[in-house]
């Protein structure tokens, strides 16, 4: 060790990069940061932009990330990439949309919470399934 | 001979149904493979972010995130119910909704209020039918657990938690165990308990951790972001598992339906042949009887 460190770039949907690298540059919130092995542990947000990676005996590689978090440990660096473009306003709009949709659904709410009826409904569905199972076992 | 035409029609219609169920079975099988793949791909992110969150929660920072603080009184509970959008997948949704309902009953007996966030059409329909309070919803996710579409609904719940609307948040979904087995589970999302943080993370013992990160630009916003993303990752994982469960449950249900249709066809064919044979015998005996009479 000493001249290389391990880099993982992962997003919630997939693993984007994983392997040993010599040097990398990431677009941190406060400006670009270059990372060599044995960097001080650090945790920061990154903006959307290019991550530059230099692996041993390889050409420099560029990977686009749409923001996320950068975690630095002396031998391991992890980028937790976002899968969507995020901003507080955008998130807020999405939250409002989800809320509005729920309110819409609540409009045709018929009654107060009625556990007895709900349970009856589920029990009916369950017994139908059980009956089908039984029929099947009988070799029908 | 009257019955035989009807039986023939019936056989035809069952055959058509069987074609549909078989096609659905095959579609579900291929979607299941993709859904499982997606579920596996989401794992590394979940693990990494858990490690970071767990480390942060144990490192000595002056700032402790509200997600980590256990509240003494629990009056309001937020639940996230993950179901499928479409039916025809056996008892999958029924199982998870029954588990949810039982738990809701226990809570309401204890005098706690419950608000629900519904992911998936089936759960939304059920919750609004029984008259539960729904705070947010996402439906029509299709076959991919799209993070961008989950963010909104999740944010409502997380905001509700930070603004003291909820004191606890739980998630209900179907855990994918294997193709034949899916298990409805309930997990506590907030506050994050030490157990959750430490699961799968035994390799670095607490005493070994004596260092903390440098936070850029400062600790609070970075920790906030990590925590929100961590919860989102957990929910994403749950949705991905539920989707894999949905497809495999559908595949199994459709396979059973196709097999059943096959059995019905066999039976009907037997009846059809019998009735045809009976008609022939009857006709023959009539001819013989007629000939004898002449």
From TrEMBL, chain A:
Pfam families: ATP-synt_DE, ATP-synt_DE_N. Keywords: ATP synthesis, Cell membrane, CF(1), Coiled coil, Hydrogen ion transport, Ion transport, Membrane, Transport. It is a peripheral membrane protein. Residues 5-84 form the ATP synthase F1 complex delta/epsilon subunit N-terminal domain. It is found in: Cell membrane. Residues 88-132 form the ATP synthase epsilon subunit C-terminal domain. Residues 92-119 form a coiled coil. InterPro entries: ATP_F1_dsu/esu_C_sf, ATP_synth_F1_dsu/esu, ATP_synth_F1_dsu/esu_N, ATP_synth_F1_esu_C, ATPsynth_dsu/esu_N. One of its GO terms (cellular component) is plasma membrane. One of its GO terms (molecular function) is proton-transporting ATP synthase activity, rotational mechanism. Its main location: membrane. Belongs to the ATPase epsilon chain family. F-type ATPases have 2 components, CF(1) - the catalytic core - and CF(0) - the membrane proton channel. CF(1) has five subunits: alpha(3), beta(3), gamma(1), delta(1), epsilon(1). CF(0) has three main subunits: a, b and c. Produces ATP from ADP in the presence of a proton gradient across the membrane. HAMAP family: ATP_synth_epsil_bac. This is ATP synthase epsilon chain. It comes from Nitrosomonas supralitoralis.
UniProtKB/TrEMBL annotation, chain B:
GO terms for cellular component: plasma membrane; proton-transporting ATP synthase complex. Keywords: ATP synthesis, Cell membrane, CF(1), Hydrogen ion transport, Hydrolase, Ion transport, Membrane, Transport. GO terms for biological process: proton motive force-driven plasma membrane ATP synthesis. It is a peripheral membrane protein. Pfam families: ATP-synt. GO terms for molecular function: ATP binding; hydrolase activity; proton-transporting ATP synthase activity, rotational mechanism. It is found in: Cell membrane; Membrane. CDD domains: F1-ATPase_gamma. F-type ATPases have 2 components, CF(1) - the catalytic core - and CF(0) - the membrane proton channel. CF(1) has five subunits: alpha(3), beta(3), gamma(1), delta(1), epsilon(1). CF(0) has three main subunits: a, b and c. Produces ATP from ADP in the presence of a proton gradient across the membrane. The gamma chain is believed to be important in regulating ATPase activity and the flow of protons through the CF(0) complex. Belongs to the ATPase gamma chain family. This is ATP synthase gamma chain. It comes from Nitrosomonas supralitoralis. The lineage of its organism: Bacteria, Pseudomonadati, Pseudomonadota, Betaproteobacteria, Nitrosomonadales. The gene is atpG.
